[in-house]
Amino acid sequence: MSIRLRLTAWYSGILAVMLLAFSAAIYGFVYINTYGDIKERLKYQSNQVVLSQAWTYDGTINLMVGGSLEGQNLFAQMYIYNINKIISNNNMHNNNLKFEIPEQAVVDNKQGFIRAVYGGNSFLIYQRSVDIPGFDGNPAAVLQMAAYVGEQDRLMERLKNILLVGSFATLIAAFTFGLFLARKSMSPIGKVIEAASGIQTGNDLSSRIEYDGPPDEIGRLIETVNSMLGRMEGFYKDLEESYAAQRRFVSDASHELRTPLTTIRGNIDLLQKVWEMEPGEGKMTDTEIRQLSIESVKDIADESKRMSGLVADMLSLARADTGRTFAKEPVALEPMMTEVARRASFLPRQAEWTVGDMTHLNGKYIVGNKDYLQQMLFIFIDNAFKYTPVGNVSMDTVFYQNQVGIRITDTGIGMDKEEVPHIFDRFYRADESRGITEGIGLGLSIAKWIIDEHGGSVEVVTRQGEGTTFVIWLPLLFAPPLE
Q1: Residue 38: which of 109, 124, 138 has the closest Cα?
Q2: 370-386 vs 333-344: helix axis angle to the nearest 10?
Q3: What is the Cα–Cα distance from 451 to 162, expressed in whole angstroms?
Q4: Which end of the chain has fewer CB within 10 Å, C or N?
Q5: Is 378 helix (H, G, I), strand (E, B) or coil?
Q6: Nearest to 410 by CA among 346, 351, 337
Q7: CA dist 214 → 218, 312, 362 (Å)
Q8: What does the DSSP assignment read for 117-170?
């Protein structure tokens, strides 16, 4: 059973109970008021009954019931047990009515109101015992005061039919309209089901559920579902981008590893052929064989070193992808920058190396990892040396608000402005089409990860043919450093 049908059934059931109780209350109220008035009138008039004259055994005696109009519309009959005499009023004579006489011994037990039908007419009869002076017996007589209640019975029957038919019609109408309203109210949930089914059978996560109703429970549900769909779409896009980056990473890594492996394998095959030659075989002398072997071993060593650097860089990026971080502690800037400047002077280079004044870094700290910070700086310095065949590479620092900026400037080949957004992508090289320098394009990706882990940022200013400036911004530590 659907939710809307269950809601309609519950609503209709509750309404049926309420209608039944309401109808019973109305019927009972009208019944009590209708017959209650008659009963009170019968009781009152029973005390007003008098004989028309001093009666005798054989005289014609009539009962007179009050003098009011209400009393004249009643039927009165008295039965005297000792003489078996029935005395009645004119209404009884005119309508040829005679009520059933109760046994003398049980009159006291049958006092009160009874319902009886005579000649197809319904009467409400009030009977009570009457003591008559001069007659022995208990009781001496019984008085029966009655009122015709056929009209009241028909009124109550009509009221009962009206209440039953009206309640049934109201229940059917309420069920019909309730089902319509429940279907209309639950129709947005149907849209939610359709949207979920569409997403389940397809890949379109951009669909949303349209709703222009009030911000009720269903409106909040649809808003929540739309929000959930938006987050799912974002997660799905991020996952697709992650998969694409992973595929690109694997493809680029395979390409980068193929070249050194091919070189190493070629040199090994050459050495194997040379060393398997018999003495005097071929035209190569021992000196030439020795020189060829030295060159091959040198090529193998160079390619092995290159592969080692590539694997180390890939491991660093893999660590970044898994969300792993490193331990951080307060790092003094002046000693670290002085050490980086000194060690950078020993890197292979053709450009001049200039270091700015570092004394103003005295007493300044940042929260980070010293080893990773030095690795990041050497990446930028090494890149500057590679892309500056002639000119100058400098490093200095600046302060802005609560940050320190480490500025590395070169006067090398620079880059085109369209290439700047991609220089931190993995395996991307700005001079790849020109083939000016060697490298694998992972250094800046690693440097960007280290900067992000330290809560910093990097700015790039470059002009093709004039040089490039990198400014690495890192937040300063203002609290006293921990010992």
Answers
A1: 124
A2: 40
A3: 85
A4: C
A5: helix
A6: 351
A7: 9, 59, 63
A8: EETTEEEEEEEEEE--TT--SSSSEEEEEEEE-HHHHHHHHHHHHHHHHHHHHH
Q: Which long-range contacts (CB under 8 A, 24 or more apart) does 24-27 make?
A: 26/159, 26/163, 27/156, 27/159, 27/160, 27/163
DSSP-derived secondary structure for 213-253? S-SSHHHHHHHHHHHHHHHHHHHHHHHHHHHHHHHHHHHHH
Report whether 85 contacts 62 (CB < 8 A): no
What lies within 8 Å, CB to CB, of 434 at 6+ separation is none
Distance of CA 185 to the CA centre of its chain: 18
Return the pLDDT at 284: 67
Strand, helix or coil for residue 89? coil
What H or E segment, with its residue span, contains residue 404? strand 403-410
298 Cα distance to chain centroid: 65
The gap from C-alpha 219 to its chain's centroid, in whole angstroms, comes to 11
Output phi, psi for 76, to 5 deg.
Answer: -125, 140
What do you get for the CA distance between the two ends of the chain, in Å? 70
> What is the distance between the alpha carbons of residues 8 and 184, in angstroms, rounded to a whole number?
12
Q: Which helix (H) or strand (E) holds 353?
A: strand 352-355
pLDDT band of 316, cuts 50, 70, 90: low
Would you state the structure tokens that stand for residue 150, as one six-digit string? Answer: 């056929």
Residue type, 61: I
Q: Write out pLDDT tens, residues 369-427.
A: 888 898 889 889 988 998 888 899 999 999 988 899 999 999 988 888 878 877 777 66
How would you classify the pairing of strands 392-400 and 352-355?
Answer: parallel
Whether omega before 260 lies within 30 degrees of 0, making that bond cis, reads no
Task: Please report the sign of the dihedral spanned by the C-alpha atoms of residue 290, residue 292, residue 296, residue 302.
Answer: positive
65's enclosing H/E stretch is strand 63-65
- Residue 441 phi, psi (nearest 5): 80, 25
In the Cβ-directed half-sphere of 15, how many Cα atoms lie within 13 Å?
Answer: 19
pLDDT at 54: 38
Count of residues in the chain: 483
Residues 6 or more apart whose Cβ sits within 8 Å of residue 30:
155, 156, 159
Using the predicted structure, report yes or no on whether residue 435 has a pLDDT greater than 60. no
The model's pTM is 0.45
- Residue burial 32-47, b: 16+ Cβ < 10 Å; e: rest: eebbeebeebbeebbe
Per the CB < 8 A criterion, the answer to whether 347 and 381 are in contact is: yes
Three-state DSSP state, 80? strand
